[in-house]
Amino acid sequence: MLTRRRFMQLSAAAAAAPALTAAPRFQVGITTNTRGGWEKDVLLSFREASEVGFHNVETFYNVVLPWWDKPQELKQKMDQMNLRFVTVSNGGPMKTQFEDPALQNQIIEEHVKLVKWIKGFGCDHLKINTGRRRPEGTTREDLVQMARTLNELGKRISDEGLKFGVHAHLWTQFQDRSEIDRIMETTNPKHVYLVLDTGHITMAGIDPVELTRAYTSRIVEFHMKDTRPQDRGGHKGPTPQREGYTDKGKRIFFELGNGGVDFPGILAILKKSNWDGWLTVELDSTDTTPKDSATKSKKYLEEVLKLKV
Known about the structure:
Blueprint: H1 4-16, E1 25-31, H2 42-52, E2 56-60, H3 61-64, H4 71-80, E3 84-89, H5 104-119, E4 125-128, H6 140-159, E5 163-167, H7 177-186, E6 193-197, H8 198-203, H9 208-215, E7 219-224, H10 263-272, E8 276-281, H11 290-303
Parallel strand pairs: 1-2, 1-8, 2-3, 4-5, 5-6, 6-7, 7-8
């Protein structure tokens, strides 16, 4: 019988005990409609990703347009393949020139519409790319306007109950470390997060481990792709040009485990910080098939990183 005295003793002991640290909750997915053979057939890419063993997929606005007015039909197809969305990125006809003040209102409205659509699929965040990089690069004035638009859009997305992450991506207006630092400094951490792409970050000359350490609390999602071993810690040469980077023999991105990205180092930081977010495998090119590449990356996730897919 539990007496009042014994109950009080147990309660006091529980109160004095150190609090248990919550385990990090890594959610794993895969982007299915980048280059490599999956980009033209979304249902094929979903089906093959499911056959490999992935349960969460990420794609783009232009890919889901056939189901824009009939999302329930797409839900049913995904349910049959045991799939859910990580998120749906902007793209296609959507405006992405965040540095252009004349487009600010249109950009916000288009992206809020996308947020409301993916909210119906249970997504917890929106990931976006910025526009194609201009020859002169990104100016300080560009970054001021980008921050203004990102802040306003992020607040609107927060009001919808989702998080908002901007993807640092080669060949866009948001590429270099100075641009990442400036946007992180001038946007509201409650409303604007970072999508850290390990491949793009590395090839932009940035160490993804160091960037993870610097911005752990601001990262909502990782895009997981590997690079050449000699690029570990950040590419030392000029930024690769877009032309030809997917050709066989000219690849700059690879399946996980190729050696250019210190994934165990990244995960050690995330575990220590009890980070909670998405790890999304992505590959823009392959020398075999997308399904084979996905299988290799899944094997690395499970056997080396000990992650449950």
